[in-house]
Design a protein that fits this description.
This protein is mainly β. It has one helix at 7-15; strands at 20-29, 35-44, 50-51, 54-55, 58-59, 65-68. It has one domain. The mean pLDDT is 86.
Length: 70
């Protein structure tokens, strides 16, 4: 992130009134040497598992997909 979350934003995330969303894409060669792309969407809104300073992200129901490279 360009800017750290403010204390108010962190409290809102912990209460579940705001969330952090992560959108990304990974390109890789599969076991057969074919180029593949995986697109993913994840989120955290204060109720996921915590592991020390880390939080568990949850998959969104839509937007996660795998496809051949173009």
């Amino acid at each position: 992130m360009v800017h750290p979350l403010t204390a108010d934003q962190l409290r809102a995330i912990q209460k579940g009134t705001q969330a952090v969303y992560v959108f990304g894409e990974i390109a890789y060669a599969d076991a057969f040497g074919e180029c593949r792309i995986t697109r993913y969407r994840l989120y955290y809104y204060g109720t996921g598992p915590e592991n020390g300073n880390r939080v568990g992200l949850t998959y969104l129901d839509e937007g996660n997909a795998e496809a051949p490279c173009r």
